[in-house]
Amino acid sequence: MKALTNDEFARMVLETPSPEEPFQPSATYDPDGDCIEYLIRPDNFYAHRVDELLTVYRSEDTGELVGSFIKSVRSFWKKLIQQHPAFGIFYQEGPVLLSHFFFARLLQLEGKPDQKELRVVAAAYREVITHADKDKIELPREACAV
Amino acid sequence: MGNMDVKPINGLSEEIGWQKACEMEGDAGKKLWYPSSAIWAYEPETQGKHIVCVSPRAIERARRRNIGATLECAYLVPNVLQAPRHVWRGLRWDDDEMFSNGPGWLSYCKIPTCSYREDGTQQPPRPNRIFMVCVNVDAIVYNWWWVPCDPRNPEYPEQYDERFREPLL
Asked: Which of A26, A32, A35 would best serve as a mutation to test chain B binding (most B beta carbons within 10 A)?
């Protein structure tokens, strides 16, 4: 396989069609990173790592939550179904809501109620759960294939 | 933007469009490659270069956001991959990688010479930020973003000593 020159690569990226429909909050799964990106707003952001799975996107202008990135999606889901088979049965037919996915992760966090680190992480999950719930975001089906 | 067509790679026909750019090859067909988005990257083990492919879905994600994010993909991603300031292999935290027993994924970082606003306007690099590019074990670039710098070492990302396993550069 040959590599593109940088000019060829840039042209290819810039000529990739933009989405036709106006921006809407949504989640996309990328099997190459086994990751889900949940975009709430199309703002420029910086990424802040919360824990092994969750990175939150914060607006460079306002600091508000504008998205999130979840890693190890399929491996997390697979472990979850193994530990709690009823989860798998529950979601066999219907879509998996992103807020439920976050909530399942929240239940696995360990620590004591007065532990500062746990409170910070739990607050971040609360924020993404609130947004995902409001936006009624569903996980792409391929992300939950086990 | 001109209307230039990218030449077919490696004898692949022009019929290979965006969605069909995936090609199975190598490692008993387990590796996914995207010949239409293959670029050079610094190879830290040999200090030479190797080919990586940028995930089409990651490019689409950038397109969905704004033109500035698209320009970062077009110009900053190759720049950081080809002339990084630091490269690490592997991540320390459990569940950080799909292939935690494998050789480890590569993380490239650098403060580039510019950044882009949402409307595509070029501006100086973002203050107190560093640009990171993530490459999986199959040499596929699946993500990139600006992250806060380490307050003590501005040319490193925050928590670098906790997050990354093996510094290669």
From this structure: A32
* DSSP state letter for A35: E
Q: Which of A31-40, B38-47, B71-80 ranks highest by mean pLDDT?
A: B71-80
The reply to whether residue B63 touches residue A42, judged by beta carbons under 8 angstroms, is no
Q: Do A43 and B96 touch (CB under 8 A)?
A: no
Chain A residues lying within 8 Å of B72, measured CB to CB: none
Q: ipTM of this predicted complex?
A: 0.89
Chain A closest-CA separation from residue B129 CA (Å)? 8
Collect all residues with Cβ–Cβ distance below 8 Å to B91 and sequence separation of at least 6. B97, B104, B105, B107, B163, B164, B165
Of B57, B93, B96, the CB nearest to A30: B57
The Cα–Cα gap between A65 and A40 comes to 8
Q: Do A16 and B18 touch (CB under 8 A)?
A: yes
Instruction: Kindly state the average pLDDT of the residues A72-84.
Output: 87
| Ramachandran angles phi, psi of A69, nearest 5° | -135, 130
Please give the average per-residue pLDDT across B161-167, as a whole number. Answer: 82
* Closest listed residue to residue A72, CA positions, set A93, A55, A95, A47: A55
User: What is the per-residue pLDDT for B136?
Assistant: 86
Whole-angstrom Cα distance, residue B90 to residue B165? 5
Structure confidence at residue A145 (pLDDT): 73
> Which of A2, A12, A30 is facing B142, going by the closest CB pair?
A30
